[in-house]
Design the sequence.
């Protein structure tokens, strides 16, 4: 659907981005500006631009960063979907709806809020030597719509979300004093990119109002270079350059255009005749072998100096742009850079900037982000429904990071694509602006319209959009939309199906419904497509909030949502467990991410994955999905070194059909490697070892020496050995080393035959308390109540969806999707677990228990009751939950298990082993519960 109406190239809107002018004359406009708020749009009636404003603020910045705006209220007009409306009506939130104590749980809370038109004004003096010069105003990033007046004359309007706003003032600014008046409006009007788009939403960067980054006036010759686009030709070792040149002299001009790759001898000049107005000049430059290729291992970036000499006036204009020699393309089902296979190991950046509420425009901030990502083994970043500023591209160029950039849209919920709405046209205009501004950056490797589109006509519309850009600019690859649809026209597919927990699967997902294993991959699914598949937003595994993080929110946003969660935890008597909940749930979160990432790495001819996320997403109900917090800082339960073991350019992998064994079985694993390093690996002898929890080596071995090509699903050999030497229940660890890379997996071995334990015959194991059992207990007997799955009453937790994995995204945004829990917390030294080896957190041996259990809500029980094994609840509810607890009842003693240890236990070695451990404990001298309950307490557990 290539429409000429979309072919909009307006030279006055071309942006410099990576392009700089070393000799330009500039007036820096940063500093003090006057301002006025205009919520009722009186400015449209010329109430503001014709008069001087009185109040002051500082630009670059936003109203919020200047402490300007209105106090929050229940009527604050947020930009962003609120899926869970309980805050507005449920009694537990009543105190947070009160004036003076307003705390919202949806996202981070700004100190001040303003939506509407705001006026900004500054007096300037144009120097005499700017006469007969081309003059323009440069605003690096506005949010959102800007309108400009010079003195009392309106100039134009700009509304780019992802590129600078630039105004041509050549015929409006004469030498002397002038007044610039800007109207910035952050409301969504007829152009709607989608209420949840991270380009505009309060979910992440906030719907801010202001101007950030560079602000300046500049003067250039009347014959000047507006923009240059550099098109590398890796095969033929040359670059093609397209220069957009403006001639404002009012007559034709003769010019000389010179290209010079700085730091090399590569140079070329040519003469051109210009017509009045806008011109496009094309010139090729041979690069030979002087210029090295750009990729993640060698991010070689070059500067192209373009000099334009006006032979008539003798004036010269210079524009310098960075570029890289690289070719990012699809060959068959494989992503390639410069002919070498690429596997994308990516995370999202959803415009999460808690200090400012808007994205940084300085190089240092972005260099830090990419450095941290690289430390965690990543090579790719997707900008979810927004386009970053110049500094992000420059930093990614230097870091060798592959970027997927989106046209500021999530066209769903509040809008649709392909229905003739104004945004359809805007999308083409905005993408043109983005390519003009950032197209030369070698890191800009992928582009899509945006995220998860909606509407009945988006297939046809996006087919046209992708076709248009594939034809126009082959410097990157394109896909229809992040998440969907899978269209034949797309170079690659962004697909949400290849992951271990999909939306709506709840407890039926691979990680929750299947026994632990590492043998599955996504080949059967990805093989149905002809294009490479990149798995969309894998992970989304949550962790309990880190309340120590609250003090870090000292900018425009506050973590009032965290304050709510901390207060409810305290009220439920568990404030002292906050750090333990964080660490235990964090260990489970990291385990879930490892499983997700390794499944992708095991998949032959896969394109890669995009995590949601390496760091937290503070909106959409609070999605604490990062092993790093919203500031890109570690939380304390996994280091970057540990993360890189399973997420890196080279990762050893082991396919195990099971991870829980009895000692009459044989351990088996097939060893593979995913290797996407700089070069193939020669003469590698992979090694493996199995150790116990103390690091003692149980078994070692070497696999056959081999050469390892670039790719994945590369089999290195098999491991097999009988487990009969393991005589007691143990957690063992398989570690595989390939060159300098190592990875490991835990597995468990339990005795096939259990020892006889004196006294266990006196323990009554029941699934329901009948009268005989109650009497037996009250008269001094010992009872193990193992609740049958599904029989726990709702008031005692039966309606809590308990699963092995962590919470997916969060329960507020997913309308209560399960699981509702964040794993277990226990004391591994507790004698009840002596025969069931465990850490303080969930590991794979707990999957059976969690998938056959209910989380017992102890809210109505005595507060002194301390569970043997806790279940970590959703931070929205913070209920005291138990998987196992003990108590005195009458003269007797009882252990209550929310785990069904009976049903189908013949095929559940974990259940058999845990039951054995509990019975041995109950028959021994350590079993001496102190908290007293009555039979009524116990009876109400069951429906």
Sequence:
């Amino acid at each position: 659907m290539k429409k000429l109406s979309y072919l909009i190239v307006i030279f006055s809107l071309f942006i410099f981005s990576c392009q700089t002018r070393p000799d330009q004359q500039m007036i820096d406009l940063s500093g003090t500006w006057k301002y006025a708020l205009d919520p009722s749009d009186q400015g449209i009636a010329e109430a503001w631009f014709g008069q001087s404003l009185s109040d002051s603020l500082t630009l670059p910045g936003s109203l919020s960063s200047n402490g300007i705006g209105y106090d929050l209220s229940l009527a604050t007009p947020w930009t962003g979907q609120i899926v869970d409306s309980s805050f507005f009506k449920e009694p537990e939130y009543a105190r947070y709806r009160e004036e003076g104590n307003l705390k919202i749980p949806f996202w981070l809370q700004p100190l001040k809020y303003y939506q509407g038109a705001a006026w900004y004004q500054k007096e300037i003096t144009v120097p005499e030597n700017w006469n007969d010069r081309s003059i323009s105003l440069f605003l690096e990033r506005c949010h959102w719509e800007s309108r400009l007046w010079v003195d009392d004359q309106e100039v134009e309007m700009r509304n780019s979300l992802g590129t600078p706003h630039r105004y041509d003032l050549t015929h409006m600014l004469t030498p002397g004093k002038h007044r610039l008046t800007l109207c910035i409006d952050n409301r969504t009007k007829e152009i709607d990119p989608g209420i949840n788009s991270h380009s505009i939403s309060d979910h992440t960067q906030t719907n801010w109002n202001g101007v950030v980054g560079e602000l300046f006036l500049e003067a250039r010759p009347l014959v000047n270079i507006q923009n240059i686009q550099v098109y590398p030709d890796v095969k033929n070792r040359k670059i093609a350059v397209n220069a957009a040149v403006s001639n404002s002299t009012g007559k034709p001009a003769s010019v000389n255009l010179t290209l010079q790759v700085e730091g090399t001898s590569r140079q070329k000049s040519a003469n051109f005749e210009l017509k009045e107005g806008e011109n496009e000049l094309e010139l090729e430059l041979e690069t030979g072998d002087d210029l090295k290729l750009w990729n993640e291992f060698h991010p070689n970036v070059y500067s192209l100096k373009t000099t334009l000499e006006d032979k008539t006036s003798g004036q010269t204009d210079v524009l310098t742009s960075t570029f890289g020699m690289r070719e990012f393309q699809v060959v068959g089902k494989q992503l390639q850079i410069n002919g070498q296979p690429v596997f994308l190991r990516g995370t999202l950046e959803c415009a999460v900037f808690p200090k400012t509420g808007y994205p940084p425009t300085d190089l240092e901030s972005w260099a830090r982000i990419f450095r941290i990502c690289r430390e965690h083994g990543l090579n790719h970043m997707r900008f979810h429904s927004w386009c970053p500023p110049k500094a992000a591209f420059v930093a990614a160029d230097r870091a060798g990071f592959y970027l997927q950039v989106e046209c500021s849209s999530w066209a769903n919920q509040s809008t649709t694509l392909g229905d003739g709405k104004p945004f359809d046209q805007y999308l083409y205009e905005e993408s043109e602006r983005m390519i003009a501004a950032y197209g030369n950056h070698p890191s800009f490797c992928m582009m899509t319209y945006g995220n998860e589109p909606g509407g009945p006509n988006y297939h046809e519309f996006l087919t046209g959009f992708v076709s248009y850009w594939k034809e126009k600019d082959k410097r990157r690859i394109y896909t229809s939309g992040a998440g969907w649809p899978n269209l034949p026209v797309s170079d690659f597919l962004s697909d949400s199906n290849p992951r271990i927990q999909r939306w709506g699967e709840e407890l039926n997902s691979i990680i929750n419904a299947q026994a632990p294993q590492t043998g599955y991959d996504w080949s059967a699914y990805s093989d149905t497509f002809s294009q490479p598949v990149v798995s969309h937003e894998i992970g989304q595994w949550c962790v309990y909030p880190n309340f120590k993080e609250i003090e870090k929110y000292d900018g425009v946003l506050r973590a009032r949502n965290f304050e709510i969660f901390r207060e409810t935890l305290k009220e439920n008597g568990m404030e002292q467990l906050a750090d333990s909940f964080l660490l235990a749930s964090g260990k489970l979160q990291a385990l879930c991410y490892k499983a997700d990432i390794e499944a992708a790495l095991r998949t032959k001819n896969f394109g890669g994955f995009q995590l949601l996320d390496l760091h937290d997403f503070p909106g959409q109900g609070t999605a604490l999905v990062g092993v790093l917090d919203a500031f890109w800082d570690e939380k304390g339960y996994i280091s970057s070194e540990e993360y890189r073991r399973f997420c890196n350019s080279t990762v050893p992998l082991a396919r195990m059909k099971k991870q829980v064994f009895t000692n009459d079985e044989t351990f088996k694993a097939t060893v593979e490697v995913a290797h996407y390093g700089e070069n193939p690996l020669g003469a590698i002898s992979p090694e493996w070892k199995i150790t116990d929890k103390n690091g003692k080596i149980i078994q070692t071995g070497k696999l056959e020496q081999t050469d390892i090509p670039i790719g994945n699903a590369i089999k290195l050999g098999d491991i097999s050995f009988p487990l009969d030497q393991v005589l007691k229940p143990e957690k063992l660890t398989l570690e595989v080393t390939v060159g300098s890379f190592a990875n490991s997996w835990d597995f468990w071995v339990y005795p096939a035959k259990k020892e006889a334990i004196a006294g266990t015959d006196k323990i009554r194991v029941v699934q329901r308390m009948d009268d005989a059992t109650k009497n037996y207990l009250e008269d001094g007997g010992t009872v193990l109540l193992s609740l049958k799955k599904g029989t726990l009453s709702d008031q005692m937790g039966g309606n809590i969806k308990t699963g092995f994995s962590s919470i997916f995204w969060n329960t507020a945004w997913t309308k209560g999707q399960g699981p509702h829990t964040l794993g277990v917390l226990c004391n591994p030294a507790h004698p009840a677990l002596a025969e069931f080896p465990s850490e303080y957190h969930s590991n794979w041996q707990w999957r059976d228990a969690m998938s056959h259990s209910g989380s017992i809500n102890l809210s109505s029980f005595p507060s002194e009751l301390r569970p043997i094994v806790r279940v970590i609840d959703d931070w929205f509810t913070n209920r005291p939950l138990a998987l196992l607890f003990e108590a005195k009842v009458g003269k007797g003693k009882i252990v209550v298990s929310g785990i069904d240890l009976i049903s189908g236990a013949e095929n559940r070695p974990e259940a058999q082993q845990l039951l054995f451990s509990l019975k041995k404990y109950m028959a021994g001298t350590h079993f001496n519960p102190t908290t007293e309950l009555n039979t009524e307490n116990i009876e109400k557990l069951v429906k």
